[in-house]
From TrEMBL:
GO biological process: transmembrane transport
PANTHER family, sorted: SULFATE TRANSPORTER
Source organism of the structure: Cyprinus carpio (Common carp)
Annotated TM spans: 61-80, 87-103, 109-130, 151-170, 234-251, 263-282, 302-325, 379-399, 405-429, 436-461
Sequence ranges assigned to domain STAS in this UniProt record: 492-670
Main location: membrane
Protein name, UniProt field: Chloride anion exchanger-like
Alphabetized InterPro entries for the sequence: SLC26A/SulP_dom, SLC26A/SulP_fam, STAS_dom, STAS_dom_sf
Gene3D superfamilies in alphabetical order: STAS domain
Length: 696
């Protein structure tokens, strides 16, 4: 009894200890899970723990001030593209940055206005609130001035962009941007650069040009510009040319000596300050009719409900930002989360839209400033937002005399990188023509039909190229590189030999309903059509039967019993107890195309899946088996083999023994089954074929 009591005590103690350990581990796991969730939703918690104030703070301050000054100028300039008052571009460099500071995973991108996004917003703004004529019939427009209506459309659009991005982030569909290839984005942004360039002509030339939207809007804009070209304001034109020449020249110096310059020369800021001073001194606005920025208010108003057309803007904005963030994450060796970036930009645009901000993304030039000036984290972004806030609330009045032509010139200069993408077209044409077609098609459609339709056309072309590549892949017949166990496309190498009597056929893509017929046709590249030969042989056998019955054919014995062919399908050959040498001369002028191979190897190493249509189509290998051509499959994924087995692919003719791990393994087996002929055997065969009179 004492022993049992002691044993029970020990058991109960162990159980209690195990339960205690279990609950402690469970509690720790829950805490760890909560901690990881918090870090994933608020990445600032993760990187602030490792923030080195001693090493990084000074760099972030310098970077933040430099980036903030650039953000002020670009915010003013890019708001012109959206056809809204210039100061709303400044809001895009403040409100979204604050939210991204807490939620973003990239440490180096500069959040704010982006010219392509601003142009897309401007297209919607001018469509709903045109320069000439009545605005769209929207109840919220009642009692508002045209300027207020446009701001309302822009803010509502920004809010909806944020909702789309936030929704996609919460649904974990960040992968959607993978369907926007680099080629498509390049063609699209080049077209956007052309639109931006044309839209800035009215500011550079000092003309009053109404806003156009929809297909061929660029043609109508050019027509309006050239109709008024004689009314060009010389002061605007000269100012713009001087600014563009100076900015381009100094930017070239920055690029050439960037290794020696600790900080790029802020020529845009310098020219803006000079232009403001000259404009104020000579009163350009009143004396020479120059359109200036005007009063920048220091009040922040709240969002009101409005419009649509936000989804493509949300996709393009995120795609561009994610691409730029990915570049810097690779360079500085840290990880960014696509879905968290969607959440961050979604929340940033919702927050910004509530304060009538312009839609935010990132600009490569501004991000380059933040990174190149030593920025280590988004502390630099936060400081740049503070610089913008100082301008909005404190010293914005100093920018009031700034001519809009200067902003137009700054915008045009910043288009250089996007416009120069056109030089990639010849390279794409030489290296990848489907990609070239996507680039050119997207660019032309976006230029002439509008950015929204152009993006849709680009996606359509891209999907067509995917279908085209999958449906018509580059299949190849492989051969052996002499002296190795390596097999490559016989067209790509000189020192290569094709194994005698063997064809090796590589299938370079998944096999499914859309391309199974293509693969069956490509198998004819082995040199013959197996079904045609099978039918020819069947017809020949039937004719031989008739000759035998009439006594017009004399049988001779066969020397090679290994060539016996099972021709019981689709015709019964039981009345023909002979072996036919189909490569010899046949009697009665019977003609059957010769088969010069005995083995066919199919390389499935890159076949990732098969569908039911493909399984049925692959049954065509029976046509080879029935004409005495052995078929082997190499490099096949075990999942595919299991699927073939489950779908009853194997039978008396197609056996599981046809599978090998590599081409070399299959070739070793084939060489054992069909030893290569010696030179003397080849000579005897050649002369024997010339003199033989038998066909059995």
């Amino acid at each position: 009894a004492d022993l049992l009591l002691e044993l029970s005590t020990v058991v109960l103690t162990n159980i209690v200890l195990e339960l205690n350990t279990f609950f402690q581990d469970s509690l720790m796991n829950k805490k760890l899970k909560r901690r990881n969730t918090a870090i994933s939703l608020l990445p600032i918690i993760g990187w602030m723990k490792t923030y080195s104030f001693k090493d990084w703070l000074l760099n972030d301050i310098l970077s933040g001030v430099s980036t903030g000054l650039v953000a002020v100028l670009q915010g003013l300039a890019f708001s012109l593209l959206a056809s809204i008052p210039t100061w709303y571009g400044l809001y895009a460099a403040f409100f979204p940055v604050i939210m991204y500071f807490f939620l973003g995973t990239s440490r180096h991108i500069s959040v704010g206005s982006f010219p392509v996004l601003s142009l897309m917003v401007g297209a919607v703004v001018t469509r709903l609130v045109p320069d000439e004529g009545l605005p769209a019939n929207i109840t919220a427009f009642e009692g508002l001035t045209k300027e207020e209506q446009r701001v309302l459309v822009s803010a509502s659009l920004t809010f909806l962009v944020g909702l789309f991005q936030l929704g996609m982030g919460l649904l974990q569909v960040g992968f959607i941007v993978m369907y926007l290839s680099d080629t498509l984005i390049s063609g699209f942004t080049t077209a956007a650069a052309v639109h931006i360039l044309i839209s800035q002509l009215k500011f550079v030339l000092g003309l009053t040009v109404p806003g156009f939207s929809g297909p061929l809007s660029i043609i109508y804009t050019l027509e309006s510009v050239f109709t008024q070209i004689t009314s060009t304001n010389i002061h605007d034109l000269v100012t713009s040319i001087v600014v563009m020449v100076m900015v381009l020249g100094v930017k070239e110096i920055n690029d050439r000596f960037k290794s020696k310059l600790k900080v790029p020369i802020p020529i845009e800021i310098i020219m803006t300050v000079i232009a403001c001073g000259v404009s104020y001194a000579f009163n350009f606005s009143e004396n020479h009719g120059v359109d200036v920025v005007g009063k920048i208010p220091n009040t922040l108003q709240v969002f009101q409900m409005a419009a649509v057309d936000a989804f493509p803007i949300a996709i393009v904005g995120f795609a561009v930002a994610f691409a730029v963030a990915k570049v810097y994450s690779v360079k500085h060796d840290y990880v960014i989360d696509g879905n968290q970036e969607l959440i961050a930009f979604g929340a940033s645009n919702i927050f910004g839209g509530a304060f009538k901000s312009l839609a935010a993304s990132t600009a490569l030039s501004r991000s380059a400033v933040q990174e190149s000036t030593g920025g280590k984290t988004q502390v630099a972004g936060l400081l740049s937002a503070i610089i913008v806030l100082v301008v909005i609330l404190g010293i914005g009045f100093l920018l009031e005399p700034l001519p809009k032509s200067v902003l137009g010139a700054v915008v045009i200069v910043n288009l250089k990188g996007m416009l120069m993408q056109v030089v990639t077209v010849p390279y794409l044409w030489k290296k990848d023509r489907p990609d070239c077609i996507v680039w050119v098609g997207t660019c032309l459609a976006a230029i002439f039909l509008g950015l929204d339709i152009g993006l849709a056309v680009g996606l359509g072309l891209e999907l067509l190229t995917v279908v085209f590549r999958a449906q018509f892949p580059r299949c190849s017949v492989l051969a052996n590189i002499s002296g190795t166990d390596i097999y490559r496309d016989r067209k790509d190498y000189v020192n290569i030999y094709e194994p005698e009597g063997v064809k090796i056929f590589r299938i370079p893509s998944p096999i499914f309903f859309a391309n199974i017929d293509f693969f069956r046709d490509k198998l004819k590249d082995v040199g013959f059509n197996p079904l045609r030969i099978l039918r020819k042989r069947n017809k020949a056998v039937k004719k031989m039967k008739k000759l035998l019955k009439k006594g017009e054919l004399t049988l001779t014995s066969s020397e090679d019993e290994s060539n016996m062919e099972d021709l019981d399908k689709p015709t019964d050959y039981s009345d023909l107890p002979i072996q036919v040498n189909w490569n010899a001369e046949l009697p009665a002028n019977i003609q059957v195309p010769p088969v010069n191979i005995h083995s066919l190897v199919l390389d499935f190493s890159v076949v990732s899946f098969l569908d039911i249509s493909a399984l049925k189509g692959l049954k065509a290998i029976k046509e080879f088996i029935r004409i005495n051509v052995d078929v082997y499959i190499v490099g096949c994924d075990p999942y595919i083999i299991e699927k073939l087995r489950n779908c009853k692919f194997f039978d008396d003719e197609i056996k599981t023994s046809i599978f090998f791990l590599t081409i070399h393994d299959a070739m070793l087996f084939i060489n054992e089954s069909h030893p290569p002929k010696t030179v003397s055997e080849k000579v005897m065969k050649t002369f024997g074929d010339c003199t033989t009179e038998t066909f059995f």
